[in-house]
Amino acid sequence: MRKIVIAGNWKMHKTKQEAEQFIDEVKQLKTNERVEAVICAPFPYLSSLVNKVKQTDVKIAAQTMHFEQSGAFTGEVSPVMLADIGVSHVIIGHSERREYYHETNETVNKKVHAAFSHHLTPIVCVGETLAQREANDTLTHIEKQIKIALDGLTDEQIANTIIAYEPIWAIGTGKTASSADANEVCDHIRNIVAKITSEQTAEKVVIQYGGSVKPENIDELLSTSDIDGALVGGASLEPASFIQLVEAGNKLS
Ligand SMILES: O=C[C@H](O)COP(=O)(O)O
């Protein structure tokens, strides 16, 4: 049985005090062995939050990183730094990074390799725009994103990659893809992964859905065949709501 990964992506929200208070409120959360609860926090809070979640079932992730280990890249954060402070996961290729910070499929691929070199679990985001969906280009676009993102990885690395399917038109808009539509794309993603590697490896890959996920719709999304968790923005900002999302995963096992 695949893992269920519920990841809250705070984006550029919260003060340090709010971030720490959030962790204080969710640290009693227990996940069963199938479920992982992850908070993707802004860089300045990572170190302190990693210390706060010790002895708890919550993990701390970064929202992006550079692919180089070190160098003259003003303002950037490297995988070495993240691993050094105990971060476990990193989001790579979020649509906001692709749109505002020129992240490409090629830099996503370099970052995924860099993540594995430093024992970080990559959460690789893919997804189509509304125009691509309306032009019937969703599956072709996502196939290209996945093939380039995973290029050159070993089967074991692919099995340990988390893929987040986030239709861009559903992010922060309140519009969720129907569970059937979201599952259809996640199933397609698994088939692409199977073509690149093997059915066996593809069966191990955790595929999340992201885009206006909230406590009210998570049960239906998780009840599908190929959605193994969620990458959640807005609804991960309140402790009570994040706990409900994780509990939805706990209920499944
Ligand atoms: O990383 C999270 C996604 O961008 C979804 O954000 P949202 O849940 O606010 O729509």
What features would you describe in this structure?
With 253 residues, the chain is of the alpha/beta class. The protein has one domain (4-252): Aldolase class I (TIM Barrel), CATH 3.20.20. Helix content is 44%, strand content 16%. The chain contains 12 helices and 8 strands. It has helices spanning 16-26, 46-52, 79-85, 95-100, 105-117, 130-134, 138-149, 155-159, 179-196, 199-204, 215-222, 239-252, and strands at 4-9, 35-40, 58-62, 89-92, 121-126, 162-165, 206-210, 229-232. The chain has an 8-stranded parallel beta barrel with strand order 1-2-3-4-5-6-7-8, surrounded by 6 helices. Helix 3 links the parallel strand 3 (58-62) and strand 4 (89-92). The chain is globular, with a radius of gyration of 17 Å. The N and C termini lie close together (9 Å). The model has no long low-confidence stretch (mean pLDDT 97). Glyceraldehyde-3-phosphate binds at residues 9, 94, 166, 171-172, 210-213, 231-235. Residues 9, 94, 166, 171-172, 210-213, 231-235 line the site of glyceraldehyde-3-phosphate.
CATH superfamily: Aldolase class I
The CATH class, by name, is Alpha Beta
- Percent of residues in helical segments? 40-55%
Oligomeric state of the chains present here? single chain
> What proportion strand?
15-25%
Annotation, overall tally of beta strands: 8
N→C terminal distance: 9 Å
What can be said about the biggest beta sheet? 8 strands, parallel, barrel
Q: Which outline best applies?
A: globular
User: Number of helical runs?
Assistant: 12
| CATH architecture assignment | Alpha-Beta Barrel
Structural class: alpha/beta
What string gives the helices and strands in order? EHEHEHEHHEHHHEHHEHEH
Please state the average pLDDT score. Answer: 97
> What small ligands are held by the chains?
glyceraldehyde-3-phosphate
Could you say how many structural domains there are in total?
1
Radius of gyration: 17 Å
Order of strands, main sheet, comes to 1-2-3-4-5-6-7-8
CATH topology: TIM Barrel
* Unreliable parts: none
Keywords: Cytoplasm, Gluconeogenesis, Glycolysis, Isomerase, Phosphoprotein
Protein name: Triosephosphate isomerase
Family: Belongs to the triosephosphate isomerase family.
Subunit structure: Homodimer.
